[in-house]
Amino acid sequence: MKGFFNHVLASMLGTFLVLVIIVILNFIIIIGIISSSNEKNVIKENSILQLDFSKPIADRSSAKPNLSTFKIDKTLSLRGIIKTIKKAKTDDKIKGIYLDLSTLQVGMASLEEIRNALKDFKESKKFIIAHGEYYSHKSYYLASVADSVYLTPEGLVQFTGLSAQIMFYKSMLEKIGVEPEIIRHGKFKSAVEPFMLNEISDANKEQTLKYIGSIWNTILKGINEERGIPINTLNNYADSIIIRNDKSAKRLNIVDDLLYKDQILDKLKKLSENDDLELVSLQDYAASTKDINEILNEKENNIAIIFAEGEIVSGEGEEDKIGSETLSKAIRDAREDESVKAIVLRINSPGGSSLASEVIWRETVLAKQTKPFYVSMGNVAASGGYYIACMADTIVAEPNTITGSIGVFGLLFNAKELMNKVGININAVNTNSYSDIGSPARKMTDFERNLIQKEVESVYSTFISHVAKGRGMKVAEVDSIGQGRVWSGEDAKQIGLVDVLGGLETTIGFAAKKAGLKDYGIKTYPEKDKMTMIIEEMVSGTKSSLIEEELGDSYIYYKRLKEVKNIKGIQMRMPYFVDIK
Fold first, then answer.
1. Alpha-carbon distance 202 to 204, whole Å?
2. Per residue in 350-370, pLDDT tens?
């Protein structure tokens, strides 16, 4: 008995000590919040704005606790970055911009918005120089807007054209004894192909080549306009892999010179006419500028920006998931807010649950009936992401946005053989004939398969009917460009799925004009104050942050596996995850 009490007391003491440590850590972080919020960065004369995109850029700004520094890491939203560059254009203290591009974690559509902001900045006649140790297709596309592009000696420029590589699991599943049970509609709905084939289908190859070709052409066109290299010549460079090293990159005018970092810093000193080089980061510059900090301030008349980022799931969702309940409430709150005169739904989503998408779609219908309702598409707004966009008055996307994928599928697994191999046998006791429908312990019957197929067909019919109504098209027209096919924003505009090419600011401008507003504020949804976001991160983000820090660049694969594991019900989602390098 004495040992029992000792064990209980020890457990209680351990729990108490853990709670004390958590309280102390949170207290230190809160002190860090207060101190960091009181910091005021003073921008000196002849400063240079340094743009470094080594951390992912989200549509919405965030403030996350850093357990190693006990401070808050603040990240600017895409809109905040655009506004910061715009402010720097007219700020006499900023002499130019330094693009540090050795690492770039930006989606293609977001990259396009940033690149356009830099093109606008150049109208001020201030300089932009770019430097990197290695340029991917994406980072070079951004660098090409600079007045001068520099590469570290012995550095590399990737210029081989875009390639889509897709993994297929059919043979592996056969070896381990797992049979995929696939139900889909749409010959292009290739989300399930890796489970049913060993190689890419002709239809999937056709659609993939079409949209990556469109993205590649946008990249070539942009480089041609800024560097003056003919598009045919650029394609020849890629076909022959002639840009093999730093010297060939310079010889072929891909870069202007080969310089080390210290030489770049010396050049920046000369350009800024300042021996004491003053480099200011995006975050510090934004923190020093009052009107940038206040870009989201509400006024008597507002435009609502509703952020929909991540896969679509039922319920509340999470920070990186669109919960049907949370997003529906956000749209409803904006619709019922009398100060909100127009609504912009910003979508960055590959889709997800069909039922959750339908719940959100209903709120978009009600919003459109009440106020001007616009959609801005980010890097991806496909399948379920397009489902919740289709009722907008106007849909705006970047040329490199991935969209469309109007199709539906269901995916179940029969793991009976695998279970038998490892010595597991499952017996089902059912109250009714089909109580265990969808069980991984047995193969589906023909009746069950036909039943689910009819549901998939019904959901697809509803999908294309919604799109037809929202886009003013015939159902047959939508079906002909649907079938699960993925499109680039550029191509989607040509077939009527997108109205205008542009970014979030373009969309806000349309919404303001439609609402007759010249002076307006911005109100963001779902509504969260900074302290709430930080506390949520303390509670839920610590584990993810630690895993992300440990896995580094491989974290994205861990995250994708978690998403696949949580797929439930009939789905409207992209066939795979797109990451342009």
1. 6
2. 999 999 999 999 999 999 999
Radius of gyration of the CA atoms of the chain, in A: 26
Residue 512, Cβ density class (10 Å: 0-12 exposed, 13-18 middle, ≥19 buried)? buried
What pLDDT is attached to residue 305? 96
**pLDDT at residue 293, as a whole number:** 45
Helix, strand, coil fractions of the chain, as percent rounded to 5 = 50, 20, 30
| 576 Cα distance to chain centroid | 14
β-strands 302-309, 340-349 pairing = parallel
Distance between CA atoms of residues 24 and 171, nearest Å? 52
Neighbour-count burial for 415-450, b at 16+ CB within 10 Å, e otherwise = bbebbeeeeeeeeeeeeeeeeebebbeeebeeebbe
Torsion of the alpha carbons at 194, 199, 201 and 207, rounded to the nearest 10: 80
DSSP symbol at 103 = S
Residue 133 φ/ψ, nearest 5 degrees: -85, -25
**For residue 134, what are the β-bridge partners?**
156
CATH fold label, 40-159+243-292: 2-enoyl-CoA Hydratase; Chain A, domain 1 (3.90.226)
Q: What is the pLDDT of residue 134?
A: 94
Domain positions in the chain are 40-159+243-292, 296-573
Q: What is the pLDDT of residue 556?
A: 55
Nearest by Cα to 159 from 148, 143, 147? 143
Query: What single DSSP character describes residue 122?
Result: G
pLDDT at 296: 52
Single-letter code of the amino acid located at 209:
L
In angstroms, the CA 7 to CA 2 distance is: 9
pLDDT of residue 105: 85
Give the CB-side neighbour count of residue 14, counting CA atoms within 13 A.
6
Give the whole-angstrom CA distance, residue 48 versus residue 94. 5
CA neighbor of 533 nearest in space, from 63, 1, 106: 63
C-alpha span between 344 and 504 (Å, rounded): 9
Angle at which helices 108-121 and 202-227 cross, to 10°? 10
Tell me the C-alpha distance between 537 and 417, whole Å: 42
Taken as a whole, the chain contains a residue count of 581
Tens digit of each residue's pLDDT (9 = 90 or more) over 514-527: 999 999 999 999 87
525, two tokens:
């949804």
Determine the number of helices (DSSP H) and then strands (DSSP E) in the chain: 23, 23
CATH placement of domain 296-573: 3.90.226.10
459, 450, 454: which is closest to 408 by C-alpha? Answer: 459
Query: Encoding tokens for residue 187?
Result: 């010959």
Pairing outcome for strands 321-323 and 317-318: antiparallel
Q: What is the pLDDT of residue 205?
A: 87
Helix, strand, or coil (residue 204): helix
Residues of the chain where predicted confidence (pLDDT) is lower than 50: 4, 8, 33-38, 292-295, 539
- Do 40-159+243-292 and 296-573 agree at the fold level? yes
pTM for this one? 0.82
- Token readout for 77 is 């939203």
Alpha-helix runs per DSSP H in 253-375: 261-272, 282-288, 290-293, 324-336, 354-370
